[in-house]
Amino acid sequence: MEVQPNSNSEKPTRITIIFPTNAYFMSGIRDFTLTMIKNMTQFSDQWAYRFQSVVDELCNNAIEHGSASGQEVKISFLSIPGKYIEIIVEDSGTGKSKLKANDIINLVAQRKQPGYAFTELRGRGLPKIVGEWTDEMEFIDRPEGGLSVRVRKVLRPEDAKKINALVQDPTHLVLA
């Protein structure tokens, strides 16, 4: 794990983790995500749990579709407290799915259409979890192969003010 400290208030703190394409490591990534969001951002606990699901979805897609066994997945968290959290997941492009960024963009757009009929048990993660709980979602073809998925959630100033005011009062539970 690599941590770049935030010495400039406008430069994000970046934490990068590289792990093998094995679902075994996902419980540690989930735990880290939850702890990091709770301790390094001003997002509420509810949002910390949502980001845990977003990271889970993105990493599991990279493991299942984008990186063959024995390869690696890279996840980076970038945060400016009080402003945003950004998560970038990169696969190796060696997995069973050889989809390009435009293929995924079109697939997500199709599945986000009102009335889209999900006929399978799977396939809802990107449009329904990641798409609903982030403000930005970008798919990028990596020059060395594979995909990079970047998502960002902005902490709205009015939310930060509410959270900061309520955090001081231990009788309130903040569910922003």
List the helices and strands and how they pair.
Elements lengths: L1 E3 L8 E8 L5 H15 L4 H22 L5 E9 L3 E7 L10 H12 L12 H9 L2 E6 L5 E8 L2 H11 L9
Antiparallel strand pairs: 1-2, 2-3, 3-4, 4-6, 5-6
Helix pairs in contact: 1-2, 2-4, 3-4
How would you characterize this protein structure?
The chain has 176 residues and is of the alpha+beta class. It has helices at residues 26-40, 45-66, 101-112, 125-133, 157-167; strands spanning 2-4, 13-20, 72-80, 84-90, 136-141, 147-154. The two termini are 30 Å apart. The model has no long low-confidence stretch (mean pLDDT 83).
Descriptive terms for the model:
about 180 residues, alpha+beta, six-stranded antiparallel beta sheet, 5 helices, globular
Structural class: alpha+beta
What integer is the average pLDDT?
Answer: 83
Counting DSSP E segments of at least 2 residues, the number of strands comes to 6
| Radius of gyration over C-alpha positions, nearest whole angstrom | 17 Å
The first-to-last residue Cα distance is: 30 Å
Overall 3D geometry?
globular
Individual helix count: 5
Order of helices and strands: EEHHEEHHEEH
Helix content: 25-40%
Oligomer: single chain
Give a quick account of the main beta sheet: strands, pairing sense, barrel closure.
6 strands, antiparallel
Give the strand order, joined by hyphens, for the main sheet. 1-2-3-4-6-5
Low-pLDDT segments: none
Please indicate the percent range of residues in DSSP E strands (runs of 2 or more): 15-25%
